[in-house]
Amino acid sequence: MSANAATDVNVISDSELPQVELDKIVVTATRTPTKTSNVIAQTRVIDQEELQRYQGQTITDVLKNQPGINIAQSGGMGTASNFYMRGYDSKQVLVLIDGIRYSSISLGTPSLNLLSADQIDRIEILYGASGSSIYGSDAMGGVIQIFTKGANIDRNNFSVTAGIGSHNLYNVGANGQYANQDTTLSLGVSHTDTDGFNAVKTGENFNPDNDGFDMTSASFALTQKITPNVKTGLSALYNKSTSKFDAAPDWQTQAVHPDAYSDQNNGSATAFIEHANDLTTTKLSYGHSIDELTTYDNGNDLNKSTIFDTAQDHLRLESQVKAGGGQAILGLEHLKQKIDSTTKYDIDSRTIKSAFIGYQLADSYYDLQANYRVDDNSQYGNESTYNLGAAIRPLVGMRVGANYATGFRAPTFNDLYYPGFSNPSLKPETTKNTEVFIEYVTDNQLSRLTGYHTDAENLIASGKNIGEAKIKGLSLTSDWQIDSFLFGLGYDYLDAEDRNSVKPAFGESTYGNDLVYRPKNSGLIYVGYQQPTFDVRLEAKHTDERFSDAANAVKLDAYTLLNLSGTMYITPSLRANLRVDNITDEDYTLSNQFGTEYATEGTSYFGSLTYNWF
Question: Most buried one in 101, 258, 271, 589, CB count within 10 A?
Fold first, then answer.
């Protein structure tokens, strides 16, 4: 081709292509903004570009496609779910919304299946137990922090979205952002509704009807700079939802009641004031989170309902101080947890007072991190945790390191006080964790191999501290961008072994068995292609066989899901999104409990249009 002919071709420069930042900034791993290349524990960031592919879906849908995370769910959208990360279940992984604790304090699990992805700016995942010495109880398996929209506003914008999908799913929403020199404001609202599908595949509570779900979500964020050194802010996320499900048979008549459903309100709100100068940043914040559940096992008798309303009030004062070439952090926290229920608990509230201190150093040749925390719980007394981590760079782009951390999980209100099953003398579950890694980073790729080993003691089962477990594994992640192409993979090997030496009241000893819903092998692979006017991504995730019962008598088959997502920029203001999940129509099972096999969705799709006014 001649030089003159080349000038007639529309050449796209690299600067015009969508860019993917591999070395991202995270705050969850250290409580301070830190590049992922300086964080010692394994982390992952799900940014706005990735969340865009989950329009009209929930946080559970986002997490189930991440490395090292496995999901168990009792049906379709909105039904009860649990997730497992590095061998820990969701009770043992702390979930935060804008820094505020979010979970049901009766069950101990967060209702991520009831949080809309549409109102989220990004999600940070911290794997492993190093979060316990930073955040306290429930972080012995890791931390998942959800950031609502409005945290990073750089221009005025208003957008509307409308979409439709399989099972009569529809989603509508609007988001607006305003920014000037001293003020930022973000408002968002969305509504999702679906007919769903029958939640139960086989079992005594099978009821051949569609189990639908609807959810209305709203988010709000406001920041105001008062002086050059002082700013204040408010943020909130609220979700109101109704989930239909197949109820268990009536214990007296054995009848399966139709139209069982639950109403739930979830969310959090926080307010803060922050002072920053060249040496220190000090922040005072107060947050409130709720998980309110009302269940109607018989939709024909609305006078019979079960209520579990839980709330958490969280006050925190923390300071970050530049010292010795690094950064120190110290703080105090006061947490009050309360439950209001139709089930009468002997004690319905507790308080936790905490103090923490840490230090982080990020150098050209090495990284260091140390944290220590003490929690004083009104129910069981003091618990202290710590972590020590270090990494060196022996070659350009290469980093090797190790981390040791202790962790714990406080007993839930159900563990301690649920009538007929309570044990107020329970102690916290505890862990000792070792992690080593090797990492290689260049301008266009980030790859990491992590090995970990965990000893867990005092695990709670049958109302007693009788459980022990050993968890060990390997995690490999690799993400690449070469010109317009994106590709990557994740592989996890997990050996999560029950070491409970006490024989249960009924059944055989479970010593040496696999922990439930923990696959030995799981992995994902993806490939994507980006252009200024469109992008497309094909991904596959494989989950190995796993057991759904402690006796290892019920095995769930392995499965592989193939998903496709894409975006087309029709005009600078109009964008179209399409996602197709389970393209091959794989028949698989995510949950089997007491002989009830819960159903999963076959091939499904969701398409949407978004219009932006800038």
Answer: 101
Residue of 485, 487, 509 whose CA lies nearest to 498: 509
Q: What is the pLDDT of residues 569-584, one digit of tens each?
A: 999 999 999 999 999 9
Which single residue is written with the structure tokens 């290892």? 552
Query: Would you give the DSSP letter of residue 56?
Result: T
Q: Which residues pair with 186 in a beta bridge?
A: 177, 221
Interior angle at CA 491, CA 490 and CA 492, nearest 5:
130
Range of the domain at 245: 21-613
What does the longest C-alpha to C-alpha distance in the chain come to? 86
Contact 515, 489 (CB under 8 A): no
Point out the least confidently predicted range of 127-131, 191-195, 433-437, 572-576. 127-131
User: Does a structural domain hold residue 453?
Assistant: yes
Residue 227: C-alpha distances to residues 184, 221, 272, 490 (Å): 15, 19, 15, 46
Helix (H) or strand (E) holding 308: strand 306-323
Q: 5 lies in a domain? A: no
CA angle 420, 72, 516 (to 5 degrees): 65
CATH of the domain at 242: 2.40.170.20
How many Å apart are CA 592 and CA 589, to the nearest integer? 8
Q: Calculate the dihedral angle through the C-alpha atoms of 108, 114, 118, 123, rounding to the nearest 10 degrees.
A: 20
Q: Which of 14-18, 79-83, 562-566 has the highest mean pLDDT?
A: 562-566
Q: Count the Cβ atoms, other than its own, within 10 Å of residue 536.
A: 15
Assign 3-class secondary structure to 402-455.
Answer: EEEEEEEECCCHHHHHCCCCCCCCCCCEEEEEEEEEEEEECCCEEEEEEEEEEE
Give yes or no for residue 8 having a pLDDT over 50.
Answer: no
DSSP type of residue 138: T
Q: What is the per-residue pLDDT across 419-433, written as a single tens digit (0 to 9) for each?
A: 888 888 899 999 999
Q: What is the mean predicted confidence (pLDDT) over 211-240? A: 95
Number of domains within the chain? 1
Q: Round to whole Å and give the CA distance between 76 and 213.
A: 9
pLDDT of 561 strictly over 90: yes
Q: In what order do the strands lie in the sheet with 592-593?
A: 200-202, 596-598, 592-593
Looking at residue 514, the DSSP 8-state letter turns out to be: B
242/244 Cα distance (integer angstroms): 7
Kindly state whether residue 440 falls inside one of the protein's structural domains: yes
**Residue 37: what are its φ and ψ, rounded to 5°?**
-75, -10
Q: How far apart are CA 177 and CA 215, in angstroms?
A: 23
Instruction: Supply the pTM of this predicted model.
Output: 0.92
Q: Quick check: is 3 in a domain?
A: no
